[in-house]
Amino acid sequence: MSGMDQAGLSVYRRVKLDLAYLAGRGMDQFAKRHPAIWRDSSAMQKVQLSDEFSTFIESLEESFAIDNPALFIDHACWAAVHLTSLGFSKKYVSLILDTLREVFEKELPIEFRKQAWDFIVKSQAALKKSSMDVPTCIVPDNPLADAARSFLAAGIAEDKNRALQILEDVLRSGVSVKGIYLNVLEPVLKETGRLWQLGKVGIAQEHFITALVETCMARLHDLIISSGGRKKIRRQKRIVAASVGSDLHEIGIHIVADFFEMDGWATYYFGGNTPVGSILEAVRDQNADVIALSTTMVRYLPEVRYLVRSLRAEKTTSEAKIIVGGYPFKVVPDLWKQIGADAYAGTAEDAVTIANHLIHKRD
C-alpha cells in the first residue's frame, strides 16, 4: 500500500503482482463462467481477451502503487470503447471485471483484496456512466483544421507524397513551424489514436502515420534551429528529454524537445527504449538544468519513479528540475508529485513555460 508524505499525499510504492499467473487464471475462469462466449470466440479474440486481462492487472498494480483507482477505471472505460468497436458485446468489459473480482478474491495477497474489490466496483459504476462517443481531436476552432484533416486522410491512404505536399502548402502560406506542430502534427497524432481506439484504422496505418509525422519533423528541423537555436542569450539553458524505459511512443517527447530548441535551449534528446543508466550519464555530461521525461503507458511508471529517485540521489544531478508528461499523468493530476518530479506539463508549450519558471525561481 502507498504511504503518505508530510503533506498528506500518497507516495508511490511499487507493487509487483504475478501478472502471467493472474492473467492465466482470468482466462480459465472466463472460459468456465462463459462457455458459450468462449466457444464462439475466434483465436484472435482470445488473444485480445488475454491482452485485456494483462493490461487490467498492470493498471491494477499502478493503481495500488498510487493508492488511487483512476488508472484502473480509465482503462476500463477505454477498453469498453475499443472492444465494442472490434465487435465485442457492450457488456464484455463488465464480464472481464466480474471475472477479475472472482480471481482476485482467491489469488491476490490478502492485504490487496478489499482495495481490488473497491476498484472494480468503482470501475463498474464508471462504465454505466461512460459514453461510447469519443470526440474528435481535430477541433472546429483549430485554424488549420482542414489541413490537418487532409494530412490525416493522406496518411490513412498511405499517400506520403500527398501528405508532404500538404505540409509544403501550409509552410508557403506563412504558418510558423510551431503553428504546424500545434495545429497539424499533434492533432493528427491524437486523432489517429482515437481512430485506432474506435477500430477505424489498423496498426499498420497507425505506424505509417507515425513515421510520416517523424519525416515531417525531420524536414522542419532546419527551420526550428533558425527560429530558436541562434538566440543571443546570457547562458544557454540545457535540457535532456527522454522517453522512459522501453516505451517506443516517442514522438510526444520529441515534439517537447523541438519546442525547447525553438526557445533557445541546448537540447539533448533521446528516442525510445533508452536505458536509465544512459539517461543519468547524459544528465551528468550535459550539466542539464531540466530533465523532461515522458511515458504514454502505465506499465512504465515504475521506471519513471526509479529514474527520478536515481536523479535525486546523485549529487551531480540532484539539483536539475524534473518535468514529467504523458497519458498517465493526465489521468491522475497529482501523479507527478507522487513520482517525485518538480512539475507536470500537458503540452510542449506548457513544458517550456514551466521549465523557464522553475529555472528562474532557482536562479
Describe the structure.
- With 363 residues, the chain is an alpha/beta fold.
- It is built from 16 helices and 7 strands.
- It has helices spanning 19-33, 35-40, 43-66, 70-85, 92-107, 110-129, 145-156, 160-172, 177-197, 203-229, 251-262, 276-286, 301-313, 327-331, 335-339, 348-362; strands at 3-4, 10-11, 238-243, 266-269, 290-294, 321-325, 343-344.
- The strands form 2 sheets. It has a 5-stranded parallel β-sheet with strand order 4-3-5-6-7, with helices on both faces. Strands 1-2 form a two-stranded antiparallel sheet.
- Helix 11 (251-262) links the parallel strand 3 (238-243) and strand 4 (266-269).
- The two termini are 38 Å apart.
- The relative contact order is 0.09.
In short:
Helix content is 64%, strand content 7%. A five-stranded parallel sheet has the order 4-3-5-6-7, with helices on both faces. The protein has a two-stranded antiparallel sheet with strand order 1-2. The chain contains 16 helices and seven strands.
Features of the shown structure:
alpha/beta; 64% helix; globular
What is the element layout, followed by pairings?
Elements: E1 3-4, E2 10-11, H1 19-33, H2 35-40, H3 43-66, H4 70-85, H5 92-107, H6 110-129, H7 145-156, H8 160-172, H9 177-197, H10 203-229, E3 238-243, H11 251-262, E4 266-269, H12 276-286, E5 290-294, H13 301-313, E6 321-325, H14 327-331, H15 335-339, E7 343-344, H16 348-362
Parallel strand pairs: 3-4, 3-5, 5-6, 6-7
Antiparallel strand pairs: 1-2
Helix pairs in contact: 1-3, 1-5, 3-4, 4-5, 4-6, 5-6, 7-8, 7-9, 9-10, 10-11, 11-16
